Known about the structure:
The complex is a heterodimer of chains A (359) and B (275). Chain A is an alpha/beta fold. Chain A folds into two domains: 53-268, P-loop containing nucleotide triphosphate hydrolases (Rossmann fold), CATH 3.40.50; 272-341, Alpha-Beta Plaits (2-Layer Sandwich), CATH 3.30.70.100. Chain A is built from 13 helices and 14 strands. Chain B is built from eleven helices and no strands. Chain B has 275 residues and is mainly alpha-helical. Chain B has one domain (2-193, 251-271). Classes of the chains: A alpha/beta (359), B mainly alpha (275).
Amino acid sequence: MNVQSRVSYSHQYHEQPEPALAVPVEIPTCWLFLAERLILRYIYEPLEPHPMAAIELNGLSKQYGNLTAVQNLDLRIPEGEIFGFLGPNGAGKSTTINIILDFIKPTAGTATVLGMNCQNQGKELRERIGVLPEGYDVYDRLTGRQHLEFAIESKNATNDPQRLLERVGIANAADRKAGGYSKGMAQRLTLAMALVGDPDLLILDEPTTGLDPNGARQIREIIREENRNGTTVFFSSHILGQVEAVCDRVGILREGQLVADDSIEGLRDNVPGGESLVVEGAGFTDSVVASIRALEGVESVDERQPGELLSISINSAASKTAVLSEIEDAGATVSDFSTEEASLEDLFAAYTTAGGAQA
Amino acid sequence: MSWQTIAKKDFQDSVRSRTLWGIIGAFILLIFLLAYLATDGNIDSTAGFISVIGGAFLFGILLFVPLTGLFISIKSIVRERESGTINLLLSLPHSRRDMVIGKFVGRSVVMSISVVAGFLPACLLILVQAEVAPVFELFAFLLATVFLGLLFVGIGVGFSALVSSETQATISGVLLFFLLYLWPAIFNLLDIDLPAFLDRFYLFALFFDMLAAIFSLREDIPNASIVELDGTNFAEASAASAPIHMQHWFAFVILGALIAVPLALGYIRFDSADL
Lengths: 359, 275
């Protein structure tokens, strides 16, 4: 994939749009225009397609009767990126992925993968991607090796089943029937199937489900390795901690809508209440708490130990000194204080609960 | 070829079904027993042989073939949908059409092997007992039975693509099992007289027409469907030529349609369904 050459081509083209035709006879302009269109359509474009997005969703919607699973979703994931697709269960992550895989039909909008339409070029595009779908089951009566042989034959690939099974850590179960595998082993087997044929794009729906922390770490390691070899990775999770470690960018889905599309740092910056002031002392009565709440920039006050320990959620408009002096003015004593950054869970909750942040 | 890969995988998967081997085992014993009882005399002529072997095969055709055919096919697609194995299959570069064709081919191979396995011991018994070895006739019976089996597999896979739950599949399987044999009786009961051509769709007529078409390769029998003849007596049939759609070989065209139409309808529904 030489993105550079494509960029330079389109650059040149825009600067010199006139075709260099040195013909002594006068040719009507419309003919020239037609010739140019034809050359572009049949010669240049097939040779040099536009720089592609690995995944591009435009106004994607899926409606089940009155229920909206995905609503007007726009998303573009450039080639080479590791993208984390986040959201609580039921937010529409799997619906989106299932539309990309043509398991379900969208009500409106389009989904494109590597320049191919998901609804009518599905077979062609699936030759170039590896998938770990949600809600799958393995073939109980086939062995792990047979599963991989099936995937290899389906993709006309030349992988060695044994090496793939070693890579995901279940080589010793290669000749056992997959019906006897644990959830984690089935997950590893499916990941191995996704890696068959060196895909340009990996789509992983909740890849760490059913795995212990060590297994989840191994999966993240494989994701990084694949990405180093040029594979774009799109994976979904309902746990922010899982994606934070590997993602270049995350998108957060809530009730079928994309509420954030940014790097983790960018997300932190955009969330109000990104910081908490934790105050320890005595005499934190209800009236003291009420006067703190009234201060500018204070978003909420959590009484961790009533009367003794408060956690005050503040945004950038707040002054910590003003908060502390207000507490003392109100008659309470402060023995100690500290600041806490919002945890990833708080951040995630801020984006995924009603009334939360809108990036 | 995509469907070939699916057919191969599907064959590997379904021949490991213990229930399937249980059904085949039970029928091997039953058909063998019937063949033993039916041949417990002398077989000295081809005509006599046909009536004897027909009796032994009748049971198999009535029960073994539809039961096995529907059992291995009616859930072939919908079970993958309910369990989620379809998500693995369709994540690979296969279209839903590849899946329907691959399933039909894979299960057809399983069906053919089941029929041959189920009837082979009985056939051997008949061969040992007969004075004139009726190898060709036995082969013809087996072949026609295999074709009948493919009919059930085609209808079963078609319905499996059509329905959206295993419960619906089971219900349609049971209904198909009875209806495919009983529909002429229902028309009889209602006193509706069907045109002779429609009588050809009756599974027994279909079976004997295919048999007649295979027999006609070796023997000089009239080229007409059994529904045009007086019973099964080939010798007495009129030599007058029947129109093409009433000739015996046309049974294969009917068979093809009875397989293709349910498969196509099932595919159309399946192709537009959300999984």
